[in-house]
Specification:
This protein is mainly α and about 425 residues long. The chain starts with a helix and ends with a helix.
Length: about 425
């Protein structure tokens, strides 16, 4: 009896040190079937095989193995294949850390360095996104391949004909407003961004490029023919001005207009600014309303007007200099608004005509009030009519979209937003106004 008890205790101790505790199986209970009421057969699963404590778990065994990296590191990066004929050496010294850098590596090793122009000379790495090799250039599309039409002639709402105007019959105000299409705006903005990025890298082509040297890639960016890199030089004020003049000619060819008179007013002011480019005008050219949609233009004006009101309270002398650079002085704007019924209604709203100054300051205030009134439904006209012996009130609600408001203001008072932006830029307040 003692021998049996000692043997059992010794077996328990050895099992405790060499095996894991066995999970206690659940107590089998008989379940009755819903249909017959007889007890169901019990299928007992075999007990799991005990595992030694010193044996590693399956998860730990996998961790001990060499991990398989999702993306190759710089040390185990496979050797890049030799480029095809006519293509320069691909980039190999790129740090790869994660998905983002891997995508950058794939993008930069496609076709970026381009043809060798002379022994040992290829496209610099900081300009490889602006120039395309001959192979890549052939796969790019032309700038005006699918732009038809490029300018839309929209009717100005509320336009009053010359015969019906009051003492303003000699004033020439068009009844249509020229607007660029969305596709043309995107193409022109891509051309402008290409030139600004080239100058940002401290380089210039001295204006030695034309429309046929620029094309659009699949991502919507403009690239120049790589052979033009022979004319690449360090940027200077004169060379950058020549580049902007060439950009002006390219934009005119994209729009399809031979002279500046046939362009929209804001775009015409932008091209004039490009031809007179000087260092420091990059922000003004980038933010200019000439290549903005109508809703963006009105938003820009609201921001600049709020900053102008702040300058009126804090810096009166700078405010007066900005107002002095705006157009439509000497009551000229009061004469022009007589050609539009909606602007005249806002001008005479509740007898507030005397609150507007005769100079450009009054034109800016009317511009702001027109945006607010036409969007809030103040263009409602109530018509009184008699119907079967009694008076019936009938209201006609005129709802304007941002495009129509921009057509009303741009057709009657053209160039106000562009002139205000340039005046703020000359006083060093444009960046603060649009921030």
């Amino acid at each position: 009896m003692n021998f049996l008890t000692d043997h059992r205790e010794e077996a328990r101790a050895s099992a405790h040190h060499s095996f894991t505790p066995h999970p206690r199986p659940r107590r089998a209970t008989k379940r009755r079937s819903r249909r017959t009421g007889s007890p169901r057969p019990i299928c007992s699963s075999p007990a799991p095989r005990p595992r030694r404590l010193d044996a590693p778990s399956p998860a730990a065994a996998l961790k001990e193995e060499a991990p398989r990296a999702r993306f190759p590191s710089t040390t185990c990066l496979p050797a890049l294949r030799s480029p095809p004929r006519g293509i320069g050496k691909p980039l190999a010294s790129v740090d790869v850390e994660g998905t983002k850098n891997m995508k950058i590596l794939m993008r930069k090793t496609r076709v970026l360095t381009g043809n060798k122009l002379s022994p040992g000379k290829t496209c610099p790495h900081n300009l490889q996104d602006l120039f395309a090799s001959s192979r890549e250039f052939r796969h790019c599309s032309e700038l005006i391949a699918s732009i038809v039409p490029r300018i839309i002639y929209a009717e100005v709402p509320g336009f009053i004909k010359r015969k019906k105007r009051v003492n303003v019959r000699r004033l020439k105000i068009p009844k249509v407003y020229r607007v660029l299409t969305d596709v043309a705006i995107k193409r022109c903005r891509a051309i402008r961004s290409w030139a600004l990025q080239l100058h940002q890298q401290g380089k210039s082509l001295n204006g030695k490029f034309k429309y046929s040297d620029l094309r659009l890639n699949s991502r919507g960016y403009v690239k120049c023919r790589l052979s033009k890199i022979q004319a690449l030089k360090n940027a200077s004020p004169s060379s950058c001005q020549e580049d902007m003049k060439s950009v002006k000619q390219v934009i005119m060819e994209v729009v399809g207009v031979g002279n500046l008179a046939g362009l929209p007013d804001d775009l015409r002011l932008l091209l004039q600014l490009m031809s007179q480019y000087k260092p420091g005008d990059e922000l003004l050219i980038h933010k200019h309303p000439g290549l903005k949609k109508e809703s963006k233009k009105l938003h820009q004006f609201s921001q600049m007007f709020a900053h102008l009101e702040m300058l009126e309270r804090t810096n009166r002398s700078k405010y007066q200099r900005i107002i002095g650079r705006l157009p439509f002085g000497n009551k000229e704007w009061k004469v022009r608004i007589k050609s539009n019924s909606f602007l005249m209604r806002i001008f005479m709203y509740k007898g507030r005509m005397k609150s507007y100054e005769d100079g450009p300051e009054g034109a800016v205030k009317l511009y702001r009030n027109s945006i607010q009134h036409l969007t809030k439904g103040h263009s409602v006209r109530v018509i009184m009519k008699r119907k079967k012996g009694r008076r019936a009130r009938r209201s006609t609600l005129v709802l304007f979209r941002y495009q129509e408001i921009a057509h009303i203001l741009g057709g009657t008072l053209p160039g106000v937003i562009a002139s205000l932006m340039k005046a703020l830029h000359d006083e060093g307040e444009l960046e603060a106004a649009l921030s």
